[in-house]
Amino acid sequence: MKRSTVLKKSYTNGLTTNHNIRFSLKAPETIITPPTTPPSYFTNNKIQLNVECLVRARIPTNTGEFFLHVYKNNKDGKEHLAVVYGDDFRSKSLDSSRPGENEMDRIVRGAYTGLLKPGQTRSNESNISIVSNQLPPPLVRIHSECFTGETLKSARCDCGEQLEEAMRLIQSEGRGVVIYLRQEGRGIGLADKLRAYNLQDLGHDTVTANILLNHPPDLRTYDIASLILADLGLTSIRLLTNNPDKIEQIENDGVKVIERIPMVPQAWKDKLDSNRIGHEMDQYLKVKVERMRHLLNIPESLLP
Ligand SMILES: [Zn+2]
């Protein structure tokens, strides 16, 4: 798997002394985020990354009936997910037979075709005709976990809205996949994400806050997403994203992105009606455009 060049810059603005704080609060504002690169532990080791789908099950939602796939991998011990809509995406690792298993084992881990019904004893009672070769590349969203935005509906970011919109678009098109990666807070974890929020309340933007905590502005990687896509038989996709770094990383892994579909927040589409509470989200997205290369048109009302 090819990876891009490792970023050599080290982020040394610590919070250990008052001197460091005074020193560090000035400089990082001018730093423009370079393309994200994977952490060195991954590029330096020789372990071949692999993923395996452990189980899948039907999840009915407000935006349609999806199949949730839980993956394991040999890199980080986290349960990364694929939320799949449409019959033509099958996980190779899930469907492959396991030593010693019987039909009920296969049913319980989700390696069946069609929909289950009470009393069913065979895993392939439905004959699904897979015609994905004749269909256009599907919509895909590669989404990173955001507890505050998705579960608490925090207005600091647009993650919850992006996830819902991606599922809605996929459902309305009839097929597609959301890869859900467990890399909270652009990879720094929930505790440091909350520290970064406190720094933002002191007046720093999201990029500077990460740097003040000795993190790069964006620690996320997408190598696991690329392998999950490959496991689902997806080599060519239409990606829902504003993030050019994501496209570069997965294309380096061999995934072909034939189209980028922007994720424009509803409030920006609606030209910012005055009753909304999204002021903090607006500032957050503006920083992503200005300092993280995100591809969005900032509404005129937010420009100086
Ligand atoms: Zn978020």
Automatic annotation (TrEMBL):
One of its GO terms (biological process) is riboflavin biosynthetic process. Pathway: Cofactor biosynthesis; riboflavin biosynthesis; 5-amino-6-(D-ribitylamino)uracil from GTP: step 1/4. Coiled coil: none annotated. InterPro entries: GTP_cyclohydro_II, RibA, RibA-like_sf. Keywords: GTP-binding, Hydrolase, Metal-binding, Nucleotide-binding, Riboflavin biosynthesis, Zinc. SUPFAM superfamilies: RibA-like (SSF142695). Its EC number is 3.5.4.25. GO terms for molecular function: GTP binding; GTP cyclohydrolase II activity; metal ion binding. Belongs to the GTP cyclohydrolase II family. This is GTP cyclohydrolase II. It comes from Gigaspora rosea.
